[in-house]
Batch of 2 targets.
Target 1
Amino acid sequence: MTKSPLDNETFSWPVRVYWEDTDAGGIVFYANYLKFFERSRTEWLRAKGIGQQALKEASGGMFVVSDAQVRFIQSARLDDELLVTTSLLAAGRASMTIHQQALRTSAAGPQLLCDATIRAGWVKADSLKAARIPQNILDTLT
Amino acid sequence: MTKSPLDNETFSWPVRVYWEDTDAGGIVFYANYLKFFERSRTEWLRAKGIGQQALKEASGGMFVVSDAQVRFIQSARLDDELLVTTSLLAAGRASMTIHQQALRTSAAGPQLLCDATIRAGWVKADSLKAARIPQNILDTLT
Amino acid sequence: MTKSPLDNETFSWPVRVYWEDTDAGGIVFYANYLKFFERSRTEWLRAKGIGQQALKEASGGMFVVSDAQVRFIQSARLDDELLVTTSLLAAGRASMTIHQQALRTSAAGPQLLCDATIRAGWVKADSLKAARIPQNILDTLT
Amino acid sequence: MTKSPLDNETFSWPVRVYWEDTDAGGIVFYANYLKFFERSRTEWLRAKGIGQQALKEASGGMFVVSDAQVRFIQSARLDDELLVTTSLLAAGRASMTIHQQALRTSAAGPQLLCDATIRAGWVKADSLKAARIPQNILDTLT
């Protein structure tokens, strides 16, 4: 059973489904959930005081996704209101692993649409070589 | 070890990296590999005589991705030439599982950038309910 | 001189710039301003009580853009906060013309990044044939 | 009357419509024509020996679109085959103006779907300040 994602501890970010997100099947195109997940991760970092543009300029590094396992359970449609969660599963010296879900809010409670485990590694922005996550970032994450 | 994807049996489709595919990190945005994989799957189906628009109109059904496991190994950049492979791993009554890779062509031979296992289920286009893959499609796939 | 877009009468919608919006030039890819404009138009309609998915199901019609004149004045970057305005210039029997701007909020006041005049026509959703805007929609718009 | 775009002198690039390009209206999302136009401009430059990634690295400059006037005449659908043309209207010291069309190939001849006039200025890649187009580029264009 999937643990309820909307407890008080879990970061969530609202996402509205626009025309740009849908395809001719009348539903959100599958790649676009990865956009929604990225937005939620970015806002989760921002809520911790980490702005990625500023971070890249200051540290010369950035997170790059190295692994994504995604289950597409139900389809979102135009005008749907989603909540997209982010919660840290693990943080190591060079990468972090995150659990993310996209849920549709409705009168009957949230419905799980998409569930993902994402691993992002830290790389140097110029060479894209793997590097250690700066200690202050790591301290902030954990 | 990953089996060489470019043997004669494997379907591959060329993809050029344009500005639209890249992000401010100077590399292809991670979600966009799923677009490349979808293009290759579509062309693989088309090579078997299956056009999805015609199929949807004729059968009232379509494939919807239900599961994606993606490893992002190396990053593609603007102007890179990629080959995106599609090969069938399994086909059942209601879904098919596919192995896909994005490789960068270079003088030193192809480099593996992204590797994915994708499962797509057959659904009715109007209700999105799971259904059996039409027999003629299944026969064509396998 | 461009009229200040942020008077009290003008509808505006906040848009945050994410990785997905940027390209390898480090700036928002030019086509993506049209996504931002569409989001603002959609929210402007929603604020008037018009939901496009519901509208399409109820009336069998939808708006389709027929003309866009866009000036790209300054570039937005990752993490920028934008305001995207929508104001009606004219509404006729079969189309409406809208003025839209994307502005970057900053301590020094809003900076104009992108300015557009967009015409959208009403079409039947199945045939895409031009049709009259339903009277109740037209009444709501004007 | 629009001059026939497919004379021998006009550069054209084939574009196939995939799921990613369409929206819930069953047609290509309007912003995506600007992606198609960008691909054709890029291939037009490449055909002249200009690779934009290499150019950016060598010259520190790049083209950025400053103005787009776009008419959306007919809608493309999933699986459509398009030709996207690029022809130079004018080239000055700091910008070039280009005429572009997206046409659907069909048995009855090409149908005009979308027509655009695009102006792109040359900027320094780091500061985004306007600059003169390098003379060798200008010579190649004209």
Target 2
Amino acid sequence: MESKKLKQTQRIVLRLFMRGSHENIKRLITKLRPAESAELLAHIRRSDQIRFLQLLFEVRMAAPTIRELPAELAKDLINEFTDDTISEIVRRLPPDDAVDLLAYLPEERQETILNRLTEKERWTLERLRLYEEDTAGGRMTTEYIAFPHETTTAEALEELREKYQKSDLLYIYVVDDLGHLTGILPWRSLVFASGEEQIKDLMVRDPVRIEPDTPQEDVAKLVSDFDLLAVPVVDEENKIMGIVTFDDIMDVMVEEATEDMYHLAGLDTAERVFTPVSRSVRLRVPWLLINLGTALLAALTVSLFKDSISKFVALAVLMPIVANVGGNAGSQSLTVVVRGLALGELEFASQWKAIMKEVSVGLCTGSLNGLIMGVIAYLWYGNFWLSLVLFLAMIANLLLAGLFGALVPLLLKWANKDPALGSHILVTTVTDVGGFFIFLGLATVLMSRLNVPL
Amino acid sequence: MESKKLKQTQRIVLRLFMRGSHENIKRLITKLRPAESAELLAHIRRSDQIRFLQLLFEVRMAAPTIRELPAELAKDLINEFTDDTISEIVRRLPPDDAVDLLAYLPEERQETILNRLTEKERWTLERLRLYEEDTAGGRMTTEYIAFPHETTTAEALEELREKYQKSDLLYIYVVDDLGHLTGILPWRSLVFASGEEQIKDLMVRDPVRIEPDTPQEDVAKLVSDFDLLAVPVVDEENKIMGIVTFDDIMDVMVEEATEDMYHLAGLDTAERVFTPVSRSVRLRVPWLLINLGTALLAALTVSLFKDSISKFVALAVLMPIVANVGGNAGSQSLTVVVRGLALGELEFASQWKAIMKEVSVGLCTGSLNGLIMGVIAYLWYGNFWLSLVLFLAMIANLLLAGLFGALVPLLLKWANKDPALGSHILVTTVTDVGGFFIFLGLATVLMSRLNVPL
């Protein structure tokens, strides 16, 4: 919702809360869309949030609103509700969202809630819970419709009219006598149908399909490549188990991008802007400690050369430049390669080309930066040999930056790890340790030339 | 397409090229989906790419394939074609994609191509070209269908059967006598219609709509919040101008995430993994030069304290730790806030809370890291005062990291700039310069305590 409208609605709701006019709030709520209620909910005080959700529940809007909330907030709020209320909400959500919602509760409470559902509801949810959250199975919903392939369009229309008049079905799936998925029927075909043809003659054959353990990022890529509204999930016998819809795919795309950005920055994906301080600290400390370790490694490298530094303190002044520019060049290479991997631009065979490219870019930018810094250092210290050392160290460190910036994510990917996870810390360790070692090492070798009175 | 299938198809195509069996390639091509052809195309040599596209063109598959190609590659390839071929391709693409494709050509060549189209085709494209590429207007297609609101469902079906049997229409729009957008009709409603009702009685009223200058990220947020398949773009009189469809929205989401990641790393969004070295260097150098400037600032800070360093070289050994951990903590805060802004988690009123949170996290992690580093430094150098300086400097620098990590993107957003652009360099400048200044400054003040023989 537009920021203006949101602010206005927020003010009205707060005023109504103060007056205790809950009936008026309910009237207002029913005019909002779930995403709008969710946004509003995210922007009011905790105590009001609970009351607001209670009202949403009374007008049967709690389930769709919770579905639109950020995971963190949803979790906090759900845990405040009674078992009764949660069972009601679970019952009204599409099964895939219901499973996600259950996952916010402690294990034993999940069981309590499941025990309150009917056998059939429980079975549907239990089956969905088997799959990892970030796979097709974990993302799919079991709300789809499939007709036997010999159904006539008139029969199909009849059944749709009877049972699915209100449903938000994107496609109609077609199965053969043994229940195997054989095709997809767009709504459009039904509109244009005469009534007598069998749906197998109208369907799109051999549709794109996926298995329940397909990783969600692969599902997203497929759906986006083929501009699909939904993709069916089939078991090893090609029997349809559920579908993943485009709205879930949009969520996946956003999640995957967040994950990459977070991993590059050394953040846990569970964190959000408004995660409580104590939790954020717990989530960030491991990464900062790893980083502290690598920083110590860099300090140890510098300490190898403390004699040179004490003889020639300009080295201490200039050494951060080599490390810093190297770190940034490394980030650039890393980001291009990590994003390229995520977008599938690097699918196979061309890794070598990508590495060579980053090394070449490192060589060029290193030469340019080295030249500029060499000149500046010469103007500053008037020492040709110092400038030469700086020039050479810059080139060498930006070469390292390009090489490791490309190599680290590719190796992680090759080892079936997330190419973004930890790669930034690894690359900057290389450019820090490498940068200090090369710069101070070269300077130590040439110390007799350098150490002229300033 | 799966990596295995892709590799296999690639091998077959290369073999067929070597044999010159173009007819066989054509037969194979017609079995591939556009996204698959595009992927294949991206993975073969340049000379084969041109030949492959030529064959795609002959089997009328060039247009949809080019639509699926990464922008960089599409640009390179398009420019190799003759005006005749390009006009043909432009004619067959949906207007929004045709405009994007034209944009890959030099200005004068665009004119040449436009002049070869019919008056109507040209007018459609000219109108779309008026809008910025990253707005609703730049993203919309003019391929949609709108019926007057008094049309009966039977009339609507009749017209759809006649003219749109083959089209991929997501919704049917409804306009009043003056052409104002009044509602949306899902295909489903037509399926269930009796034939006599007017579409205004079946339509969803007051549909979500946007203006042509709405930024693409806002369009994406709207479409994803409401799980829409498409959203209409209307002019100031509420007359429908075009629609933005979910497949374009998926592209926008991917683009926006890439943009944020790139901007955080100091990269131009025009770059891709396989951008030629010379172009990559040109694109990266400005950022590296800005970074060189900030690194110089840090070096100048260190040089303020060169007397202290030459008296006590341990300072040069330990100072990178303060700056390095500060830089990483800054990246963490920055990434959380930038991503929070992109996902709309921070829409208004809560900026202050976000800043306070990051500062608090900085205080906690700073204390912890400072304590650990203090102990390590004590074990290393056996100097209590040095450890104290390190402890205090770590706390102060991680406070700075949290403060600026949250403040910089919020200020940029407030000034209507991209919150990710340049913010990383700004924050690390603060943590570098600040870290060095606080650590070396404190040490200088306490020099009499520090400078005991080791």
